Amino acid sequence: MVTNTTLSKNESLDFKTLFDAVPAQCLILSPDFVIVAVTNEYLRATMTQREEIIGRKLFDVFPDNPTDENSTGVYNLNASLQKVLEKKIPDSMPIQKYDIRRPSYQGGEFEIRYWFPTNLPILDENDEIRYIIHRVEDVTDFVLLKRKTKLPKPIADEFSNEEKMQAHLFSIEESQLIAENKFRKSQHQIQDFYNLLKGIIEGAKDIIAAFDINLNVIYFNSSCAREYKIIYHKDIKVGDNILNYLAHFPGDQAMMNACLTKALENNEFKTIAELGGPEKSHHYEVNYYPLKDKNNRIVGVFYVSQNITERIRAENKIKENEAALLQANQELEAFSYSVSHDLRAPLRAIGGFSHILEEKYAKTLPDEAKHFISRISESALEMGNLIDAILKFSRFSRQSIKKQNVSMYLLSKTIAEKILNENSDKKINVSINPELPSCQADESLLKQVMINLISNAIKYTGKIENPHIQIDFKQENNEIIYFIKDNGVGFDMRYVDKLFKVFQRLQRAEDYEGTGVGLAIVERVIHRHGGRIWAEGKVGEGAAFYFTIGGEDEY
Length: 555
Known about the structure:
The protein is an alpha+beta fold. The chain contains 16 helices and 20 strands. The N and C termini lie far apart (116 Å).
């Protein structure tokens, strides 16, 4: 009896059932490599279950063997699938070593496997990839045949010529596989390095270009294109002769020709170029390097430059400021000379004549007149002291700084002992921390700082009981802060901003002598060392002066 196998009109063809039963090892993948269908033969060959792999990513189901450091299965298969996605054509791969994990009930270890993979795209009506068929053939037995111990001749003779030929061919394929894997890895490494280098050069702020031996442009980066467009108002292109490009700027053209010619003569050099036509409005620091081929022959010039226009302008501004500062210093010197000589002459006359009046006519002058003469003499003397203070402040502002290592403990101790000896009638306790850190400073200038601060502390504690002065330091945020603290008359913090102003005093001159210049000198010296100074105080409880010594001179 003959059975009719033709489908009736009411029956539908179950393609999924047919695909599952195909006697080939195949997967169907979505474009993002998700497994959407699998044949029974593929499941058998890979020791997997359909419900466990459908809907999962290919490389999540089949990862590389973690115990094989040289495994490249995932890398090579991914590269092939990406090639299919990109070119929309089939890709046949050489033999791949791609180990398969045994099921957990068999231990879960990886089993060595070798495969012949082929990947084919399935396109939709818009010529876009809808699926990829991944077809493999398990060739493990043939590949491992080569690795087995050499068989005895009687057994070997039983192999057919065809089997021997297959084993030999697969041995060749395996060698090719290893070589091709290494080659692909090298290609990818080279490409990755090229892309990295290209990205660095393209993104560089430096102006980078290359010219062949005829001075035609063979490469330029985006900074070069932008900069040349700004200067010469036209685009630079690969193939342009740089001399023709600069034809409307003969000065720039001649300079570039001379420099490139020098580089072509095997000279590597640097120069400062002024570009932009007659105005020379753009300045560049340019490096020229001869380009050489693998035979060490010069084939062109590599050109790297930086726009230093702003730097040149800043340097010129600094030079102008230095010239202005020099002139101001010269004028200040002249003023100081005038103050020192011209103003002192009338003061000497005032003081002299006042003294004559007081000496010669003392008996005949009324008491009120004597008082006025005494006030005139005192005012002349005070004016002389103020002139001396101004000159002293000016001198410390102009004095050059010569830094050296200064022991703050020895400096403070020497100054304190000297001032205390000069004020032996005052019983003041001065404590100095012997651990005071040394610093890099001009010792003569720093000496004036300490003289003024210690003198002030002694002066303003002289009229209280149990006066005490502390010279110490503290460290905050990796910065050494020196301080001199006393328990004297103190000051009102509302007026702290006046402390370091010239001729500004917070105590009456009748109560405490001084010119009001000392702390201005202190601030000036500290600032010239790149440091800071500030004060804290409270009326009737004392004052503290804090300062730092910076690393570099500010001016």
